[in-house]
Specification:
The chain is of the alpha/beta class. The chain has three domains: 180 residues, Nucleotide cyclase, GGDEF domain (Alpha-Beta Plaits, 2-Layer Sandwich); 194 residues, Tetratricopeptide repeat domain (Serine Threonine Protein Phosphatase 5, Tetratricopeptide repeat, Alpha Horseshoe), CATH 1.25.40.10; 252 residues, Rossmann fold, CATH 3.40.50.10610. The chain is 53% helix and 15% strand. Strands 1, 2, 3, 4, 5, 6, 7 and 8 form an eight-stranded mixed β-sheet that branches. Strands 9, 10, 11, 12, 13 and 14 form a six-stranded mixed β-sheet that branches. The N terminus is likely disordered.
């Protein structure tokens, strides 16, 4: 059978696939209840369904179907599905307490996370069937979840679960790992907390880096040291920040004038959350490779990974990211074998271009990634320009153990601690011991050294030098690696060599035409060097377009800084208010807002923002913060010391007036 025939068989017309958390429920002993008293049973079922339907909607679920006493619902989030199930059982227990035991309406609930086929409003497939089998295993008033679900929630929800082991269930080829959720005091406390909380807010993200480099209009950076340290870690890790209030959805983005694609994170179906990094690595490597192609428009991983663990409609992804095509897939790893499924969809029409399943040895994973990339290029009719031919030959790992160490380094670095980042650096060094020619590992090592230097109070120059040397070594091994040039550019800037930083930034943009951080870092080098704002603005706009969902606090603040320099104050204020809506503690944006209000003569508004800024830095004083950041960002500040002193003086004056008015 040809690949085209396989694809057609896997993706029949009108049917597509997606990942979903599936909740299946029915009433224990429903036939008996109906036989005893139909009217009373229907009355109780109706009252129970009012509870279940309301809670499913409250937890962002969708009821797919109901038949008699059964319920089938899907959720974008496993956590939402399990929380919903626990609350359903709690509420129904309360309602049943007033009924005789033989008349109680007790639901059994099963929850699974899996791949489903979608046709119209209906969902089908093993993912649904497993949920139904789990429901049959549950006790009356109880909940059973699959092993995949347990791995996803075990560190997110304070629930006790009992391992029931692997269970053979009807019409499912392989045994299913089953866990029983204990509806004990811990679960009751969770329900109580949920009932007291406000409705969940939309989860827009904002991982960010340090504040912009305090050039010209940014010269009041003295307030943000502590905030900057938190922001830096979140930038390096990709960790989203919680929004401060309900944020309205962004309008649909227009499609670029070239083929455009988003690669969603590959779902880990191994039943072991510790293997998440492997699927993440495959997806991110595909994004990195595709991002090198000038004939494609590729959304950054920071935006596509905001959909991780969620069942999403590809049409919505297309509108939110402004792309035509979406690649989605899954990974199942067992010992030395791996199964990867992937499908490429025109999300604007729901047309499947191809779908394929690959069963390979782990040692073939790098060849497999190349095959998928080539299929995407062929399907989208993307041609390589001559200088792009060699881009995929050098930086790829050749040692599987080294590859895994690098992705484990990212995983432990996401703990947001100095210890975690130190361990990440050590894992990079172990990867290099196994594969000394691994350029990507050197580039990552440079970034972790830079993080360590940024977070260090003493800013040890030896650590900065190690970041510099690691980036140089990455480029020596693979001069086509965009992120290596970005890392070297950052090191040059911190060493005070701005022109060399700009040169490396320009190289990174040339080599990575879809690398959002390459554009953003080059823009910040140019801002530090006081280049004209009209020259920098397109770079920041391109960075934000390539990364539309990961709300970049620093790059949006940079955008506002450029607007202020161009005397576009209304646009600057609107942009800064959006930043603060996503994170009201982001000091650089608040300080820039102060300067805009001062420029417009709105001193009352300026003083209100200064008062908020002073709250952020406690227990430190204004002068302590100014002195600390004066040292930290000297390379940029000294380019326009007069502007820095003027704006700092303005801030001191307003702060004094705020204190006086108390």
């Amino acid at each position: 059978m040809s690949n085209e025939e396989k694809s057609a068989r896997m993706a029949p017309s009108g049917v597509r696939r997606r990942l979903a958390a599936i909740l299946a429920a029915d009433v224990k002993g429903y036939s008996r209840l109906m036989g005893e008293d139909e009217v009373a049973t229907l009355r109780s079922l109706t009252a129970s369904r009012e509870v279940t339907d309301a809670l499913i909607a409250q937890h962002h679920g969708r009821i797919v179907g109901t038949a008699g006493d059964s319920i089938l619902a899907e959720f974008a989030s496993v956590v939402d599905a399990v929380q919903c199930a626990v609350e359903i059982q709690h509420e129904l227990k309360v309602k049943n307490a007033g009924l005789p035991e033989h008349r109680r309406m007790e639901f059994r609930i099963g929850i699974n996370l899996g791949d489903v086929m979608v046709e119209g409003e209906q969902i089908y497939g093993d993912g649904v069937n497993v949920a139904a089998r789990l429901e049959a295993l549950a006790d009356a008033g109880g909940i059973c979840i699959s092993g995949v679900v347990y791995e996803q929630i075990k560190n997110k929800l304070t629930l006790s679960c009992e391992d029931l082991g692997e269970q053979s269930v009807k019409n499912i080829a392989e045994p299913v790992r089953v866990w029983r959720v204990a509806l004990d005091e811990t679960a009751g406390n969770m329900v109580g907390a949920a009932s007291r909380s406000h409705p969940a807010m939309p989860k827009r993200t904002g991982s960010s880096r340090r504040p912009s480099p305090l050039t010209i209009g940014v010269a009041v950076a003295g307030l943000g040291l502590l905030v900057s340290m938190v922001i830096l870690v979140q930038y390096l890790s990709g960790r989203p920040q919680a929004p401060s209030a309900a944020i309205p959805p962004a309008p649909p983005l227009p499609l670029p004038d070239k083929p455009s694609i988003a690669v969603l994170p590959f779902t880990n179906l191994s039943g072991d959350a510790q293997q998440d990094y492997f699927g993440d690595g495959i997806a991110e490597d595909l994004i990195t490779d595709l991002s090198k192609l000038s004939g494609l428009f590729v959304i950054s991983r920071n935006s596509t990974f905001t959909y991780k663990g969620k069942a999403v409609k590809l049409a919505e992804v297309s509108k939110e990211l402004g792309v035509q095509y979406v690649l989605e897939g899954s990974v199942r790893r067992a010992e030395n074998q791996v199964r990867v499924t992937a499908q490429l969809v025109d999300a604007t029409t729901d047309h499947h271009l191809w779908a394929e399943r690959y069963d390979r040895s782990l040692q073939d994973i790098f060849t497999l990634q190349d095959e998928i990339r080539q299929k995407i290029m062929f399907a989208l009719k993307v041609k390589l320009v001559p200088e792009e031919q060699a881009y995929f030959q050098l930086s790829r790992a050749t040692n599987l153990d080294a590859y895994e160490l690098l992705w484990r380094a990212r995983e432990v670095g996401l703990r947001y601690t100095k210890e975690g980042m130190a361990q990440a650096r050590q894992l990079c060094e172990q990867a290099l011991a196994l594969d000394p020619q691994y350029a990507g590992a050197y580039a990552s090592l440079s970034s972790w050294y830079m993080a360590e230097w940024q977070l260090s109070a003493s800013q040890d120059l030896q650590t900065l030098e190690r970041a510099f040397e690691a980036a140089q070594q990455a480029i020596a091994l693979d001069g086509t690696l965009p992120f290596a040039h970005t890392a070297l550019g950052d090191a040059y800037k911190m060493k005070g060599q701005l022109e060399l930083a700009i040169t490396e930034g320009q190289k990174s943009v040339t080599l990575g035409p879809n690398c959002f951080a390459c554009y953003g870092e080059l823009a910040e080098h140019l801002m530090c060097a006081q280049r004209p704002p009209g020259e920098i603005l397109p770079l920041v706009e391109k960075a934000l377009r390539l990364n539309p969902r990961d709300y970049r606090l620093d790059y949006h603040t940079d955008l506002a800084i450029l607007y202020r320099q161009m005397e576009r104050h209304d646009e600057a204020i609107t942009t800064l208010k959006q930043v603060l809506l996503h994170n009201p503690t982001f000091g650089p944006a608040r300080r820039e807002l102060v300067l805009n209000y001062v420029d417009l003569g709105q001193e009352g508004e300026a003083k209100r923002e200064v008062a908020e800024s002073l709250k952020l830095i406690r227990p430190f004083t204004l002068e302590q913060m100014i002195a600390s950041n004066r040292k930290r960002w000297a390379v940029c500040i000294e380019r326009d010391l007069a502007a820095y002193e003027r704006d700092t003086g303005t801030f001191r004056r307003l702060a004094a007036e705020v204190e006086k008015d108390k």
